[in-house]
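Protein modeling request. Please complete all fields; requests missing the sequence field cannot be processed.
Requester role: graduate student
Desired output: 3D structure, token encoding
Chains: 1
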Amino acid sequence: MKPTKSHIALHRLRFHAYHGVLEQERAVGNDYEVTVTLQFDIGRAARTDDVADTLNYAEVYETVKKTMAERRNLLESVAWNIGKALLEQFPAVESAKICVVKKNPPMGADCDGAEVHVELKKTTN
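Delivered output (125 residues):
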């Protein structure tokens, strides 16, 4: 038996970062939540029950954390660069879905945040 599709996800990782176009955003920062969903064949790990056969959640988190620390103007760029870093660092990952939420966007609205979703798929060249 082989899984047809499997994912590993980390939900609503919380960060305070300094992304944005406005000078105020870049000075005081904002709160963000990042969700990553990584398509990864979990079949071997499911059979062996060995942590060496799966993705290390802590390493995935550290990659997201490092990328969130790199200041960007746009959430689109933040999400894209997180996905790119994860695909580069973890060869077994086939695709990455990234959702980045800016909790308090500077637009005068009472809302739960502004978010960007991106899905990147590994290509073979």
